[in-house]
Write a structure and sequence with these properties.
Layout (H helix, E strand, L loop, with lengths): L2 H11 L27 E6 L3 H12 L4 E8 L2 H14 L11 E3 L3 H7 L4 E4 L6 H10 L3 E4 L7 H17 L3 E3 L7 H14 L3 E10 L14 H7 L5 H4 L2 H4 L2 H10 L7 E7 L14 E9 L2 E9 L8 E6 L2 E6 L3 E6 L2 E4 L7 H14 L7 H20 L3 E2 H5 L33
Parallel strand pairs: 1-2, 1-4, 2-3, 4-5, 5-6, 7-10
Antiparallel strand pairs: 7-11, 8-9, 8-15, 9-10, 11-12, 12-13, 13-14
Helix pairs in contact: 2-3, 2-12, 5-6, 6-13, 11-13
Length: 432
């Protein structure tokens, strides 16, 4: 398929980045516009884990007239823990009455039915397409954590929901926080302006240690509760760690490549050190090559293995130089003008996200991340697909996959009987 034909196909699919579309203008009659420091913006938190709690903190700090009024989770202890933390961090902004602490798989509906203006979606990724669609239907502005889905049908659903959000004039910001990081922005602006010439190769890593596992404590948990408490290790809930965690590196790759989609991908992965049954059916390492055509490649490696070398880097090579980023340590560009290193005061990228989101709501030009968040999530899902199956897949093949990893999110309850699929075996696990 030629590049032009491929681009037309992807454009028609609704999952490609529209040229220049990182925001959009709203007509003066926008019903969702809020005057600065006149109307109080009420926030509802759906998913009270660590990331949701952090996002709620940043939302209430974004400006003076923002308050948290509703919370939802399937576990009451998670709500209580989050509520206690939020009260300690920003007590004057936490106005959640006991009858606005909603518990259960349908708790998100109760938050949406309350008089909140902005929703934070931070439940496990498998719930994202359903809850995002419900939030848009309810006419709420949204901060939507990454990833936005765990499989291709989920992505296609999110793309349609994002279109509706844009048509309604709703803000839709994703949790791809590095695009709001000052040193990252400055470094990217420098090498993308032509300082290293034509970019041809990018290499990203997200190599960490092992993550948490929650053991039953006082009482015995059912299989469903054990799975939900440890959702990272069920690929139908998390998408596997390339989708749930290392997706940040793939978003950084896409950003460097101008948010142009690759043509094909191939890769590998497996499960070497985290092999116990309690770790469900996820891999502990991936290595993916994305082919952008015309000799351009994106290489990505990630792993979650204890006592191994760690690395969280972006290495960009062009015809006239190189840019290197160790995300927490150094940012430099060595190109046409010699060597440049970032120096300055680093701001909190998580806070920057919410400052931007709430300012956009106030000024009537809601921030829109709908297309980009779908594409970056699909890059990660695609990487998992090629690693699980051992196949080389095009973007079109991956995007049109009919594989559904888990049950319909609307049907999940405490009586769920959904056995985990076997750990994938490259060469044996089929592409669907």
């Amino acid at each position: 398929m030629s590049n032009n034909t491929r681009r037309e196909f992807v454009k028609k699919s609704g999952a490609t980045l529209l040229a220049g579309t990182l925001g959009f203008n709203i007509v003066e009659a926008n019903p969702y516009k809020h005057a600065m420091n006149v109307d109080t913006l009420k926030v509802g938190l759906i998913g009270c884990g660590g990331r949701g709690t952090g996002a709620a903190t940043q939302a209430t700090l974004a400006e003076d007239n923002v308050v948290l009024t509703a919370m939802a989770d399937i576990f009451p202890d998670q709500i209580d823990k989050a509520h206690k933390y939020l009260l300690e961090e920003n007590p004057s902004k936490i106005m959640v009455d006991e009858d606005h602490k909603f518990v259960g798989f349908d708790a998100y509906k109760k938050v949406l039915a309350s008089d909140v203006d902005v929703i934070i979606l931070a439940t496990p990724p498998s719930f994202r397409p359903l809850q995002l669609a419900a939030a848009v239907e309810a006419g709420k502005h949204i901060f939507c954590e990454k990833p936005v889905a765990v499989d291709a049908p989920g992505i296609r659903s999110v793309v349609e929901t994002a279109k509706k959000a844009k048509d309604k004039g709703l803000a839709l910001m994703s949790g791809f926080c590095w695009r709001h990081d000052t040193p990252m922005i400055d470094t990217y602006n420098r090498f993308k302006s032509g300082e290293i010439g034509d970019l041809h190769t990018i290499y990203t890593t997200y190599n960490t240690g092992a993550l948490w596992y929650r053991e039953p404590k006082k009482q015995q948990w059912s299989e469903t509760e054990l799975t939900m408490r440890n959702w990272l290790y069920a690929n139908w809930l998390s998408g596997d760690h390339i989708v749930e965690q290392a997706i940040h590196s793939l978003d950084l790759m896409s950003w460097a490549m101008g948010d142009v989609l690759p043509e094909s991908a191939i890769g590998t992965g497996g499960r070497q050190s985290r092999t116990e049954e309690k770790y469900g059916n996820v891999f502990d390492h991936f290595s993916i090559i994305y082919d952008y055509g015309e000799g351009k490649r994106g290489f990505h490696i990630c792993r979650q293995q204890e006592d191994c070398a760690r690395g969280y880097t972006v290495d960009v090579m062009g015809s006239d130089g190189r840019a290197f980023i160790d995300v927490f340590k150094e940012h430099y560009v060595n190109g046409k003008s010699g060597e440049w290193k970032w120096k300055g005061d680093r701001t909190n990228m998580y806070q920057n996200e919410h400052n931007t989101l709430f300012a956009s709501i106030r000024n009537g030009d809601p921030y829109f991340d709908g297309v980009r968040m779908s594409n970056s999530t699909m890059l990660a899902i695609w990487g998992r697909m090629v690693a699980y199956t051992g196949k080389k897949l095009t973007w079109e093949e991956a995007l049109n996959s009919e594989e559904v990893l888990g049950p319909n999110a609307a049907d999940i309850n405490w009586d769920l009987d959904w056995p985990l699929k076997a750990v994938a075996q490259p060469g044996k696990t089929p592409f669907v």
